[in-house]
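Hi R.,

Here are the chain sequences for the assembly we discussed:
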Amino acid sequence: MVANAARRSAPKSRGRASGAHRKDPSIGFVSLGCPKALVDSERILTQLRAEGYATSATYEAADLVIVNTCGFIDAAKAESLEAIGEALEKNGKVIVTGCLGAQADAVQAAHPKVLAVTGPHDTAAVMAAVHAQLRKPHDPFVDLVPPQGIKLTPRHLAYLKISEGCNHRCTFCIIPSMRGDLVSRPIGEVLAEAETLLRAGVRELLVIAQDTSAYGVDVKYRTGFWRGRPLKTRMLELCDALGRLAQDAGAWVRLHYVYPYPSVDAVVPLMAEGGILPYLDVPFQHASPRILKRMKRPASAENVLARIQRWRSLCPEITLRSTFIVGFPGETEGDFEALLEFLEAAQLDRVGSFAYSPVDGAAANAYPDAVPEAVAAARRERLMQVQARISAARLARKVGRVERVLVDAPGVGRSMADAPEIDGVVHFEGGQVGEFVDVRIERSDEHDLYGRLT
Ligand code: SF4
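And here is the predicted structure of the full complex:
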């Protein structure tokens, strides 16, 4: 089976017809976790297909099952262990990869029968484990793998991962211990992938990394090459080149996981010029300087409100999205009030929030002053009420305007202000999946817009 549990999509069969006299070995695949893990799954599936393995829509028909796990929070760990158990029960031959794979001892303690455990973004190790179990098929038809690889996203969307790992050490997060320090992909390789995706019909590229704005820091912004010309491995140069590619292809580029460093100011004019979508997903996580310091957040010393003002002066159309953690150890009512005041002042367009939950291995677990669960939940509720009012007011300003919309399903699409899966949508009648349409907005609520095609 090929299933992407994070998106709750139905299992999809990616199998191909096998020869009359020989059945190619068939692999089941379960993909859990965030978009970064999704891209890892796509790479493994691409490699499997390139080598001629079939994929199976059921556990029973698979010769073995690969489970790409998530280990970000305890609930995700539990879900991953449960998925491994289910694959073992229904198939018996299981290879584990992904973030939880970085804790091989824990996986093997819970499920001693797994065949192999590898860490995240290690396609080579996963393939070696597959080869050890199943012969590598040989078939000239495997060359028919599409150049953009196997994608788990709809055909008109694709995630573009520009780096792996993270140099920060936020005290609530164990990602660096699972995925390692920052490793930026060569800029020529990233742009070549973007070009292939756009040629294959992708209409929106979603740029992701643990910290997109840190792109190139690990290689000291070394000069790479693209189309024979030198180009620095740096966010600004990457965004500029991506914007040009996307404009030529009539597509969008959206930036996720950007931190409020001064260097981001240079990218915002590209948004005003239309190369990159005027959209920034900036995980602020808190606003109280004391809590940000305890969280060891990157760019926590920056004056974030001034930065937001600057971004809006450079690009008045910019949409700002963020996430916040409430109930972090030591958060007082005063800290929380500071966060609410920040929200009122910042007038962010979109906000997600989480009540803090301790993750095994996170440094923040050592803080003694935990906030009771009920208090954290109540604060989250208050925060979302405040933000619902702000988001609704910001969306209401769009009523009467014409918005460019990318159609995701008949009658449903997203404007430039809406990232897939996490933001609201635009409702209208008609439209073909993957095309751009113009919608006159007639009404709004706190999440979505409603209108008709112009
Ligand atoms: S920036 Fe912080 S939260 Fe994000 S991956 Fe790095 S350590 Fe984790």
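The longest helix spans residues 373-396. The radius of gyration is 23 Å.

Let me know if anything looks off.

Best,
T.
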